[in-house]
User: What shape does this take?
Amino acid sequence: ALPICLPLPEGARLEWATFSSDGTRLAWCARLVDHLELWTAATAAVADATLVTDRLSTVMGSVQWGGEGAILLRRVPADRGEAPRPPAVARGPLVQETSGIEAPARTYQDLLRTPEDEALFVHHGTTELVLWTPEGEEVVARGMIAGASLAPGGDAVRVELLRGPWSRTLPAYRFSRDTVVLARGAEGWSEVARFAQDLQEEIPIGGVATGPRSFRWDPLEPARLVWCEALDGGDPGRDAEHRDRWLAQWMPLDGGEASAPVELLRTEQRARDLIFLPAAGEVLATDYDRDRRWTRTVRHTVAPGGGSVAAVVLEDRSAKDRYADLGSVLTEPGPLGAPVAVVRDGFLWRSGRGASPAGDRPFLARQSLDSGEPATLWRCPEGAYQSLTALLEPDAAAPRFVAWHESQAEVPNLYLHEGERARALTERADPQPMLREVHKELVRYERADGVPLSATLYLPPDHQPGDRHPLLVWGYPLEYSDAGTAGQVSGSPHRFTRMGGASHLFLTLHGYAILDGATMPVVGDPETMNDTFIEQLVLSAEAAIDYAVERGVADRGRTAVAGHSYGAFMTANLLAHSDLFRAGIARSGAYNRSLTPFGFQSERRTLWEATSTYVKVSPFFHAHRIDEPLLLLHGTDDNNSGTFPVQSKRLYHAMVGNGGTARYVQFPGESHGYRSEEAVLHTLAEMVAWLDAHVRDAEPR
Assistant: This one.
């Protein structure tokens, strides 16, 4: 295997690269100071690259490969002109109005607020949809193109066009839109079908839009469009025998009218996915039961005129049951180049993470399409971590595939597996040799109510038996229906230790022990589990500290808790409702749930339906009880739903007013995560200084 060296313009940075479905061509995006360029070349002759466009737009999507080296892309119109500038003084008041329509919605951020915002949105969102081939190019459409996909035959294109008026309360993916199908004719591209979708403002919490959604092309037909529709009004609270149905419609390529849609099948629960098998009329339909947190995949045989005539259940399990996960269905290019499931001799091929009580052990397997019985063909050996990245030849006797290989001491490298043999394809050097001395171990323990827990324990490079270190517990709460799935182990102790960005793992180099990914399960009925959110958090935190202390690696008097986003919410709550920790670090969190009144995380009730729970779990309302030092970090441009920067600001003010010890750090221009070199380094410096002052070097209690 020889490396491919991509030619880039001077001063450019490689953004991404992608192969065509048959692997014969390669396309890549070069980022320069003021524009993006798209280049392509034959895989065997990359030096002879061709510039496709120097006006590539990725504002609302990327590129798609077609057959014969065709590329569907969006580019900036040549006549776009300068971006509109906001006025120095507002032209008038900003007005919003409602007229009694129930439109519950999450607390979205980065929304349009002014007429100038709308003008800027239209300016950057308006693009040309271009179908490029080595022989030339065609402009297919122009407008606010939110999505586009090329039919397998290459003679039809599905285009999603946004239309106003623009909402001030919803993000762009819920704007009004028309899904238009264009077909190539002798006189260019013409419209053959249109599906309208109005502003999605009346969708119930946890529900879906009414009307067509989840469009895709049938990979076995030149121009057959497939989509999903709700049968329950999109409302998960409404009783219904079937919640969704999948439909299909052949699009005319001869200038005629589209045929009438046919119903392929119905799903009892909310449709999640539809995967086509290589045999005509064979599909895999996955649905999800919101109430039970249950997933099911069924093989359907669909009659030529529509309607499922046979069904075989291939997977039926709790969506939280990692140990029972059969893995993802592998795909390969079908006869028209579009992806279909890998099937050989009546067996479906899968690969997965292979979660087990000893940690993840990825696998390659095949499953009978008739009986549903799975059989593992390859599994990651013990003592290392290997994960499949590409299946080359699905031969049950000697499968040929490429997988990453790594261990605590071995840098991740790609290996080609051929039956029992494996040989390295890459030889990457260790970028952080100092980290090889960090001790890493998957540990398990139990909380007082019997729920099993786990974490990855990191110990400093200079750790010696008997040493006790200051301890940092880093966690993120997750919801489960039962203790069995809540206690399942995730992750592997054999992964190569890497640190990047503002990773809290850097603290191991500063003498801290870390329980990373310390499980904080919230177990119970999906409708009411947050009623005991606080009590379960405290139980999990107590168990984590007890384990580290009893193990002899931590000092109970020098412990800290930290987390990001929902983990920050967890951190503030643990400081408010327990005295387990000496200090905490909360990054990009939300602390006042009255500011997210229509649900948060997986909470299904509104503030008005569960007022006491919203107040109980909001650290802001208990700020007077936070008597440990709390470091609050937040990006000024956080775009995550619910974690407005004002959440950290108001909690800080509440602690100031109640005599607490806190520090509030804002990073200009940063979003939910921190990416700039300045923000990353400053975050690490803040974390080290805070924990040193209030945990490592603090006076004993």
Summary: The chain has a mean pLDDT of 94. The first helix runs from residue 115 to 125. Residues 162 and 257 are 24 Å apart (CA to CA). The two ends are 61 Å apart (CA to CA).
